[in-house]
Request: fold
Amino acid sequence: MGTILYLAKLILALIIGVLFGKKAPIKVLNKSDIMLTITLYVLLFFMGINTGSIDNILLQLNTIGLKALLVTLFSLSGTILISIIASYLFDFKKKYLLKKDDVLIERSVVITSGDVNKLMNTALSEESIIQVKKHWFKRLVFVVKEPLVLVSTVILGIIFKLYTPIFDWYNSTLITYLLYILLFFSGLGLVKAKINIKEIFASPILLLLPLWTIIGTYLGAFALSFFTEFTIKQSLGLSSGFGWYSLSGIMISDLGYPILGSISFLSNIFRESFSFFLIPLFSKFGRRFYYPSVCIGGATTMDVTLPIIVTHFGTSVMIPTMYHGLFMTLIVPFLIPLFF
Reply:
């Protein structure tokens, strides 16, 4: 009963955000991203404070990163396997999706795999080679910058808790209220995205995209339980963030499992980071690999990884990709409490 009530409060915060967003002026919606970012960093900082409150946490920190990496690798392996099988069972390339002459756009990715292939088929001057290397360096910085800042925010909270008395007043209920605020601003973000659900039904087979993500992720999580000390329920719970690190780790911590919350947070950071590398890689093998590209992105395909997927697979995938991310975002708050 407690879990149901907890979940109901979280969903209510999200719904209130959506309802408020529908009535709010455009200026308010445009500021929702800034407020969401501020709330996220405050939450992550206090997640560090919460983690630093654990007895003998320093002895456990050196193993958290490795465990988080294992969660990510198993989850992604299962996701890639199931999504590739699904792409062959449902030939979306011919019937449901993707135009041959689709126009590609470039946003977050500085240089695409197609650009590199074109360059490599021509004689490059020394200056051109330097420029290509610079672009790849910029892309690498783009990929690692945000995860490093996010992780550093948590570490900063841990340091403050362990080595200063400033946050001796801290009470874990603060995370719960900040979580409500985060979901409220997430609701505003959903309204701002303006996803046209009608367009998704033009390609009905794509409605199953989230199903492949969930089945694949949980298949990998199930296998994880046989190679680590995690129980099946813990493995499934740790994988249920689907890349939404700002919610999953904090929810698990708020449910009374701060160590597992930290592992979940890092594993979802890793999932997003791996997506930045794997999506361009899959695009080189053909458009059939749109399935694994969008499935590994999980909840992030509504925002962070959307530009990269569209860049490499064309503008016609934008709506189904956003739908996939929206569905995964909405289902995460339901799934995590089921396992803790």
User: Anything to note?
Assistant: Residues 2-339 form one domain. Residues 224 and 230 are 8 Å apart (CA to CA). The chain has one domain: 2-339. Confidence is low (pLDDT under 50) at residues 93-124.
